[in-house]
Amino acid sequence: MAGNTFGRLFKLTSFGESHGRGVGGIIEGVKPGLELDMDFIQKELDRRRPGQSKITTPRDEKDRVEFLSGVFEGKATGTPLAFAIWNKDQKSGDYDNLKDLYRPSHADYTYDAKYGIRDHRGGGRSSARETIARVVAGAIAKLMLKEIGAEIVGFVSQVGEIQMETIPEDLSLIESTPVRCPDLKVAEKMIDYIDNVRKDKDSVGGVVSCVIKNAPAGLGDPVFEKLHASLGQAMLSINAVKGFEYGMGFQAASMKGSQHNDEFFSENGAIKAKTNRSGGVQGGISNGEEIIFRVAFKPVATILKDQHTVDKSGKEVVMKAKGRHDPCVVPRAVPIVEAMAAMVMADAWLMNKTYH
Amino acid sequence: MAGNTFGRLFKLTSFGESHGRGVGGIIEGVKPGLELDMDFIQKELDRRRPGQSKITTPRDEKDRVEFLSGVFEGKATGTPLAFAIWNKDQKSGDYDNLKDLYRPSHADYTYDAKYGIRDHRGGGRSSARETIARVVAGAIAKLMLKEIGAEIVGFVSQVGEIQMETIPEDLSLIESTPVRCPDLKVAEKMIDYIDNVRKDKDSVGGVVSCVIKNAPAGLGDPVFEKLHASLGQAMLSINAVKGFEYGMGFQAASMKGSQHNDEFFSENGAIKAKTNRSGGVQGGISNGEEIIFRVAFKPVATILKDQHTVDKSGKEVVMKAKGRHDPCVVPRAVPIVEAMAAMVMADAWLMNKTYH
Amino acid sequence: MAGNTFGRLFKLTSFGESHGRGVGGIIEGVKPGLELDMDFIQKELDRRRPGQSKITTPRDEKDRVEFLSGVFEGKATGTPLAFAIWNKDQKSGDYDNLKDLYRPSHADYTYDAKYGIRDHRGGGRSSARETIARVVAGAIAKLMLKEIGAEIVGFVSQVGEIQMETIPEDLSLIESTPVRCPDLKVAEKMIDYIDNVRKDKDSVGGVVSCVIKNAPAGLGDPVFEKLHASLGQAMLSINAVKGFEYGMGFQAASMKGSQHNDEFFSENGAIKAKTNRSGGVQGGISNGEEIIFRVAFKPVATILKDQHTVDKSGKEVVMKAKGRHDPCVVPRAVPIVEAMAAMVMADAWLMNKTYH
Amino acid sequence: MAGNTFGRLFKLTSFGESHGRGVGGIIEGVKPGLELDMDFIQKELDRRRPGQSKITTPRDEKDRVEFLSGVFEGKATGTPLAFAIWNKDQKSGDYDNLKDLYRPSHADYTYDAKYGIRDHRGGGRSSARETIARVVAGAIAKLMLKEIGAEIVGFVSQVGEIQMETIPEDLSLIESTPVRCPDLKVAEKMIDYIDNVRKDKDSVGGVVSCVIKNAPAGLGDPVFEKLHASLGQAMLSINAVKGFEYGMGFQAASMKGSQHNDEFFSENGAIKAKTNRSGGVQGGISNGEEIIFRVAFKPVATILKDQHTVDKSGKEVVMKAKGRHDPCVVPRAVPIVEAMAAMVMADAWLMNKTYH
Fold this sequence. Notes:
Four copies of one chain form a homotetramer. With 356 residues, chain A is α+β, with helices and mostly antiparallel strands. Chain A is built from seven helices and 19 strands. In chain A, the strands form six sheets. Chain A has a five-stranded antiparallel β-sheet, with helices on one face. In chain A, helix 5 (227-236) runs antiparallel to helix 7 (330-353). The relative contact order of chain A is 0.17. Chains C and D meet through strand 1, helix 2, helix 5, strand 12 and helix 6 of C and strand 1, helix 2, helix 5, strand 12 and helix 6 of D. Strand 12 of chain C pairs antiparallel with strand 12 (241-246) of chain D. Chains A, B, C, D: Pathway: Metabolic intermediate biosynthesis; chorismate biosynthesis; chorismate from D-erythrose 4-phosphate and phosphoenolpyruvate: step 7/7.
């Protein structure tokens, strides 16, 4: 209700601010008996971590997840899985200068407008540290989805003006480059591009693409909880996301029906589509093809250039930037996109069990 | 849970198929004592109706809403507002040839995959007739929103390859053209374009843009129910929608932070943004500026050209199209987009009342 | 949220007032392909109907359910099952004298306090006609539960000062007496008792007991949605219910642990309890024994004696009673109790499917 | 959905087992800016603690709550309030003998039937330690309710065969006796009674009564979420509860309408009821009178006598009891009953704000 819970049957209720005791959540709907592969969960968290390479911020957060309940002898018991990732760095004094400032395109002003009170340190609840809880829940959703073989693969398809032309068949190289682009030539260009942005004390946006392989047909609910509508809400709920499209997306607007329709054919008794402009979903329900979607990220609002803004009293101030910040968070967003997609898929799968 | 309810506090639970007894729903969260302006509600329904002009299908559905409960002496009582729009045309025999057919890019195959049973007549539950219930609920949400002055204005900004360059200041001409594009020169081109598509027995997609004026700052919830994430889910739940973006949307991906950030300033004691690249939402919460978003529609799947597909048994068939169909539903989608936006805003507003 | 929806996966959202167009609802979670036995559903409705015998009110409502969606060729399709029972008798003029009156122990005053507006005719939304929707949904839940063999049997165990000592083994005679008490000797006494209450122009309360047979072990969720807590909420939501207990209920308060505990034993490989003081539920989860609970009903507030009360303005008035009213609604409450129990069990069963 | 969340707008999602890392929860719906009186919250927890006197178990748990998020400078920020109470005593070896045992009238067997896996140590999730989270959330709900002046007072009205005849006017002495009975003479008898039960190595049940003072008229929702139905679910969700009644409760079943109805009168412009047999709720909505209800607790299942039972394999075993256990938990249940009532009232109050 108040926006802290995601999902219907596979559910994450998250908590935490960037500078409180920590961030974490409660996960429900985990299959009783599921082996919780702690190495895998930690690896997923590590993929989100800043400081993975020169193109990301060098702070080493080393986020370690601690499970507080719901695990017994390494297995999920079916009771709520609570977990926390404790905040290390609690020098809230660093943030005193931001106390009454409304940073441009940050959530400072809107939180004050909504709540009339706000933990200003590091963005508080609107900090991207909140996404840590999503990565943990998403990792567990991925473990659940192994039972049906579904696999979720995200990658960076655009950084600023650099973009991949097509999705390559081979997605195996994604993790071999810090920018998480499977086309290594494009990846090189992206890295250079980000490097120049950093030197300019600026930031830049990008696009994360995602492919869900081996999802069975029949997932998703009609009308308001169409599979792509749930994926859309999931992605748009990630910090800095400005757009979502699946299949042909916005390109479909300029297409004709005869160009866009996916004709069916039959192969060894299975019904398949000749093309996949639909992006694996028809009428809100998966059709057994690959589910493909794209997520647009704006440039992060924190930049190292001076900016004009106001404080709480309306007084105009020039904001002197300092510190170290990621010029492009898009590569680090890949595991978050995957995590949200995994949660949507696990939830749709559990929901489907109730029909049969 | 099963996808038939939208909203948390302002809620629509919808029902109905294209060829059952009718479509309708139950609306909850309507303010007790609200005058239900039946003329207005009917007018909204009329805007969705086919047969409004030569560019839409000539069938005259004349959908009339009947309220079944929750109204007393013209006012909402606070109890559930049930309503129905009865189906007229029940010649289900017309659809016998579609009984076992999986139409390309329709939901026939996926519904069968999900449920194992399906009302094949006219698309059943996946029919766009279902959106009638949304328009009724949206009309009531609009009546609710008058109290805070918020206004929702949708229009067609693209049809196929024809698009408006910028959003004009003056949106007053939208309803003066059947294509619902506020720039009448562009509207003319769109009408010609659609006419050619019809002659080609084809269909075409487009984009609906939407502006929400006078929304107060503070609406929307952080994290998973960010205002734009709810708008996104709402829009993506409309039939044929393939993408959603707000503010600079996908363009933001190629922008720098210094180009994208909206600096604040102070005017007569009020805090405002110099620019509105954020699209009226920051950190998931409205900032008092205009909320702006765009919704991409694919071309409708039903075209009058022959198509290759399979039936339930996997046998390949050539589908001979017949009947009369809209070549471009985008203009008719405008009231649906507005309705969903109105519901999201009414819900966010009610939610906010619980904080104060 | 606003109290009109019951259930999580097997869900009823109800609508309607006693004097609007009708009452009805939307049912979700019905298994796709379920045969909807219309005769059975109508029979359940008939059991709730007034005028079944001299001990109930002689009005003949003949409530007929009409399904509006979700059914195709006699089977549920998995899409929402909307239904309505149309109100016949709409002489709202009869109620003008009640317009501003606050009847003792009715909901007139509290609805005004809550909503500031109220459909005063026949109790409006607080009328017992609302329970018709529950009986329809409960009938469908019973049809669902056939798959696991679970059966729900309600009966009257107390009317005023007349009560059964013990639950008889043989419950086959319940429907053979209008008072729905399986012990025919006690039933005779109850009928005489009610007859005297009627002659006195008074009303009387009673108790409905209910046994759920063949419920598998493992149903119900821990903590807040314990099976008996859901049953309790369900029963307490029925008009005129003042108490709920299961197993030994309030008697357990005066018992010792050594008297109350149910020891387990093993029989042919199955684990069973020697006694069933727990009432078939332990830790909120069914243990495979019979689930037994009792529901206390107050006497209906409408009596044919004069009563003192006030109107909206606070003016004291003597309420002259008229018309024909049931002196004891408890026998007619039996199908409603069963319906709510069936919905709880169907919901718990669907929920359990998501664990395996 | 899975039973770990209570409430709609004022919400607790709880986690934790008796022998994991700890118990805790996430609270949502707390008013932004609310002063969190930590002393008060801790005092409420202390009231639940074992070892408060010779009649309770002498273990000194000293549960201290730690808030993990949602608090800034002593005030709630409106973001989720996560909290934990860490488990101290983790000698899980003590429980090895219970590993495969199904204790009579405990949840061991039913958890295994449901989940197929179970943390057997100390009852796991079914342990009464889980109620700690409720007391914390209830304390915060009480702080919220101060704004409307509503006050919740629970007390013990029955222990085994000892019961109070009537509710005394003066409830100020409740906390002056360890048995929490406001009539000190009856309290003495209860203490003696419990002492004898302990010497017998047995346990005993009882009743907690609760009065909600100064609740405004208009709280509660019609139909399925009637105020007393929510209270009933809340109470029945507490470990060991077997029954709930409000107003005249089960006694109402033997009353006549003319005896039970509460006539209204007018006093200084306010509408009041001459009597309060309704228990402060009519038609599911509070009427401004005191809300009164009673909750029946069974004797705790753990007793120090030998009992016959089976293990997981079905083998019959004699359970040798050991350790120290409360012979009567009813006095310690008082703060839990109050906590659940406070949450229900805070939730109903927030819900009501959305109507106006």
